[in-house]
Amino acid sequence: MQLKYVTMSTNIIILVLIVSIIWYFYYRIRENQKKKELLARKLAYVKIKKIEIPEKIEKKKEIFYELNTHPIKLSLYSKSCFHNYGLARIYQNIVVKTYWLNEPFHSEFSKLLQFIGSNNLWIRDPKTREIIINVRDNNNKLSKKISMTVLSLSEVLEDTLNELILYLKRQNIYAQYDIQNAILSASIYILSQSGEIDIISKTLGIIYSDQEGLQSALIEKICGDISSETKNNLIYNDYLNSIPIKEIYNQILFDSKQYPYTFSVDNPTTPVIKLLSYLPKKQLISIC
Amino acid sequence: MLDEQITKTVPSNVDLIEIPVIRNKKICFIRAKERVDADKKSYLRSILIMVGDELITTNFADTVVFLAEIQKFERGNKQNFYTSIEQHNGNINLKLKLTSVNVYISSVEALAITTMHKHALQGMSLIRIIEDELMLTAETIALYLHKNKMLEKKE
């Protein structure tokens, strides 16, 4: 009887164990299924979320439109052709700043400036006193020299042209042709007043009787490319004669700087006038 | 050595001063005076003679020769460099050898010039005039004349 009970109890225990094991496995499988479902749901949720979040908008690259700001280049004569700071300043103020690059004027005016710059020309000072100096050196050589004060022609030219342009503005004359002609005629007039005009006319082969003849010959020799109409306008035109070039010039003579100058009387070493046989070419030069 | 070099080149502290001697004939001395601020002294560097618009002498030795010719007056001879003796209506005069104008000097004026020269040397140190005289060329004279405003027209 007792044995029966023992077998019964062991059977029951085994059964319970088996049932518990089966239950345990079943439970595990169900949990796994639940986990899988949760994962699937989570994944689905994440996918939905991914769709909902708007993707980052790619910023458009800013396009820089480069403006055409590189320095403008013009075909000009370089500053070194004028041999003089004052003349280079005249060229800068009259030709470059105003863009007066129209052809007969530009090249002929700069040719005139180069002629003045290559020969250091001077004008006799109206206030000067000529003093003769007798110098006896150690070898008992007596030499006579005359000393006086002179004015630099390029300085006088710069001042008169500035004054002339101011005068034309005051008189409301703005026509390019008129101003250019006035500038040319004033500069030719000042060149004809130079102290070395005899040597200049000899080297250029000019024979003249009066002042106007000298000026017209100078224009033909130095600025040959100007048309004959403007050549006549420069000197003989009544309109241009109405501009008081001579008065402005005479005013400036009394204000400009004086320099001492000596030249020998007995054997004058005549200064050689350099003619413009070789003209420097124009170059592409940037302004500003 | 260095002192010699400095004194013989063109110094900037030299002034030319005009001393009128005979006004109606425009005869005057030109005194080159060097002012040294450190020593508080002024030295005489040269004396020149100007008649009208012409500088006759340009160094001190020539000036001395000119003054000697004037001092001797009629006792000079044909070797005179700057003057020639001329007789007019019984009066003996000295004619200056100039380029453009004729200037005659009487005996009284000659005396005046010599006495004025003595006065012109007074009160100045003569040390530098004999050994370290200014070596003036025409260009440097023109420069000094311009600096002292003597190249301007007188009215």
Question: Can you characterise this structure?
Answer:
The complex is a heterodimer of chains A (288) and B (155). Chain A has 288 residues and is an alpha+beta fold. In chain A, 54% of the residues lie in helices and 12% in strands. Chain A contains ten helices and six strands; from the N terminus they run H-E-H-H-E-E-E-H-H-H-H-H-H-H-E-E. In chain A, strands 2, 3, 4 and 5 form a four-stranded antiparallel β-sheet that branches. Chain A has a two-stranded antiparallel ribbon with strand order 1-6. The model of chain A has no long low-confidence stretch (mean pLDDT 85). By secondary structure, chain B is of the alpha+beta class. Chain B has one domain. Chain B is built from five helices and seven strands, in the order H-E-E-E-E-H-E-E-E-H-H-H. In chain B, strand 2 and strand 3 form a beta hairpin. At the A-B interface, strand 3, strand 4 and strand 5 of A face strand 4 and helix 5 of B.
Oligomer: heterodimer
CA(first)-CA(last) distance of chain B = 46 Å
The parts of chain B where pLDDT drops under 50 for at least 5 residues are none
How many E-type strands of chain B?
A: 7
The ordered H/E elements of chain A are HEHHEEEHHHHHHHEE
- Rounded to an integer in angstroms, the radius of gyration calculated over CA atoms of chain A is 50 Å
* Number of DSSP helical runs of chain B: 5
Principal-axis shape of chain B: globular
Strand content of chain A: 5-15%
Tell me the helix content of chain B: 25-40%
Structural class of chain B: alpha+beta
Average pLDDT score of chain B? 85
Largest sheet of chain B: 4 strands, antiparallel
Largest sheet of chain A: 4 strands, antiparallel
Structural class of chain A: alpha+beta
Quote the distance from N terminus to C terminus of chain A.
129 Å
**Most residues in contact, chain pair and counts:** A-B, 22 and 25 residues
Number of helices of chain A: 10
Helical content of chain A (DSSP H or I, runs of 4+) = 40-55%
